[in-house]
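Entry under discussion copied across for reference:
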Amino acid sequence: MNRRSFLAVAAAAAQVPPEPRTTLGVSPDSFAVRRPARTALEFLQFAHTRGFGGVQAALPPDAGAGYLKAVRDYCERNGLYWELLAPLPEDDPGPFDQAVRQAKEAGALCIRSVCLAGRRYETFRSMDEWKEFVRRSHRRLALAVPVAEKHRLPLGIENHKDWTAAEMPEIFRKYSSEYLGACIDFGNNLALLDEPMELITALAPWVINTHVKDMGVEEYSDGFLLSEVPLGKGVVGLKAAIALLRARRPGVRFTMDTLVRDPLRIPCLTDLYWATFEQPDARRLARILRFVRANPPREPLPRVSGLSREQALALEDRILDECRRYAATELGLA
């Protein structure tokens, strides 16, 4: 670990974390305005000063033995956890193998990765494009799973607005490995017309790690708007979800992933939205639109457009603190 990192750790240790603290961790993707370092030690110290119990984070490419020991020691000293963020390998599994080996040495509990960085209905314009993505995803998983098994570090694949609640379990059945499962994002699959508890229940048998969030929904002309909102103010049954996942995997950690940004447009009433499905599913569409209409937002959906950077940071900080307090006082994550 270099001098700059040591100084940052010392500065963080001098700060008094806010109360109440929570065992809920935080993902760096929760910060769309403020951009803290995504690397393990630096993000751990940031999260700790904000009152959170752990992180999902990457390792720097030049991480040496000293840095890895510092990560492990910082977690043990402060009662924190961390989970590795790492991309799936493309052709050469070597870099993934190295990251997983180092993460295990640094005390990581598991790995979180994705098959798609974007959104299915925006990324692919035809069924052929989608099928090629499916083939590529399986090639990458076939390289990654043996690495996770070798190092005995479970790999959670996030439902990242790509696979539906019906499609994703087939991936886990195909590989049938105790070291491959799901990073269950509580809200993403509303964008694919899966209600939150439908998705969480479908993936619960394979849960490895989580992205906890609450969601607000609101109709617009081509479908509905979807937005992360402070925990407890949206449509996700958070208490039921946490109880279900704890029953399935008692040691599972809960990591918040709440982005403060303008609402996403889910254009489910357009032809292009359905380009990667065999045919439009009228029943699912009708059901999700009823769900949206039955759950209008309790307060205006968060927006950052038109705000100054200072105003956007203040909004992000307020929502972060609301989520921390709610997790500690209402969700049993103290």
